[in-house]
Amino acid sequence: DVKVTQSSRYLVKRTGEKVFLECVQDMDHENMFWYRQDPGLGLRLIYFSYDVKMKEKGDIPEGYSVSREKKERFSLILESASTNQTSMYLCASSSLGLAGGHSTYEQYFGPGTRLTVT
Amino acid sequence: LAKTTQPISMDSYEGQEVNITCSHNNIATNDYITWYQQFPSQGPRFIIQGYKTKVTNEVASLFIPADRKSSTLSLPRVSLSDTAVYYCLVGDMGTGANNLFFGTGTRLTVIP
């Protein structure tokens, strides 16, 4: 089974702190994702990486950065945490499959990190 | 861009068939439609994926009409353990992750 692990289930940080959220996958997947999930807003993509050292901004990248130095690890960084970044953060990974010439994917999610910024 | 719209919530009695519809009027030619299930305090879990017509697996069926502007997830004979939030995702990884859109999800409550 694919396993995606996140470094913490719950995290409490103070405003202005630098925060690192770590995600590790064990299936040699090319793609990794960071989402945040807020009530009424569903899942929103923060950043995406399709290879080591490669990244793309998602819908809401402001206030976040990412790092992917190894294929299995994708880190989300809050340079200076703010209260509006209090949220559930979900990491996912996927391979890139092809069917009939189109790209397909199945994302495997970690359990999430509930971050509270006070 | 293929935005998605789903009902916010649905209730169903145990043993009934449940159909959840997702609208995606601007779906692109290369986009696939994927449904995920999420239980409280867990990450979403893949249920089913399709491109057109009908797809069936051991847990659900996915119906996609010819114009592909909507899709319907069908759960046969639901049980209490099917109570969860169901997300519709439309997109194509080949054109970048910015083309991936999760809906806000449908909260399904199964009643005894």
Short description:
The complex is a heterodimer of chains A (118) and B (112). With 118 residues, chain A is mostly beta strands.
Kindly estimate the percentage of residues of chain B that lie in beta strands according to DSSP.
over 45%
Task: Give the number of helices of chain A.
Answer: 0
What radius of gyration of chain A results from the CA coordinates?
Answer: 14 Å
Query: How many individual β-strands of chain A?
Result: 13
Structural category of chain A is mainly beta
Radius of gyration of chain B: 13 Å
Could you tell me the strand content of chain A as a percent range?
over 45%
Strand count, sense and closure of the main sheet of chain B?
Answer: 6 strands, mixed
Which regions of chain A have little confidence, pLDDT < 50, spanning 5+ residues?
A: none
Q: How far apart, in Å, are the first and last alpha carbons of chain A?
A: 37 Å
Averaged pLDDT of chain A, please?
Answer: 90
Rounded to the nearest angstrom, the distance between the terminal CA atoms of chain B is: 40 Å
**Quaternary status of these chains?**
heterodimer
Q: Which pair of chains has the greatest number of interface residues, and how are they split between the two chains? A: A-B, 33 and 25 residues
Write down the overall mean pLDDT of chain B. 90
List key phrases describing it.
heterodimer, A: 118 residues, mainly beta, 7-stranded mixed sheet, 4-stranded antiparallel sheet, 13 strands, 59% strand, B: 112 residues, globular
Describe the fold and architecture.
The complex is a heterodimer of chains A (118) and B (112). With 118 residues, chain A is mostly beta strands. In chain A, 0% of the residues lie in helices and 59% in strands. Chain A has no helices and 13 strands. Chain A has strands at 4-6, 10-13, 19-25, 31-38, 42-51, 54-57, 64-70, 73-78, 87-94, 97-99, 102-104, 108-109, 113-117. In chain A, strands 2, 4, 5, 6, 9, 12 and 13 form a seven-stranded mixed beta sheet that branches. Chain A has a four-stranded antiparallel beta sheet with strand order 1-3-8-7, with no helix packed on it. The radius of gyration of chain A is 14 Å and the shape is globular. In chain B, strands 1, 3, 4, 8, 9 and 10 form a six-stranded mixed beta sheet that branches. Chain B has a four-stranded antiparallel beta sheet with strand order 2-7-6-5, with no helix packed on it. In chain B, a hairpin with a 5-residue loop joins strand 6 (61-64) and strand 7 (70-75). Chain B contains no helices and ten strands. Chain B has strands at 9-13, 18-23, 32-38, 45-50, 53-56, 61-64, 70-75, 84-91, 101-102, 106-111. Chain B is an all-beta fold. Classes of the chains: A mainly beta (118), B mainly beta (112). At the A-B interface, strand 4, strand 5, strand 9, strand 11 and strand 12 of A face strand 3 and strand 4 of B.
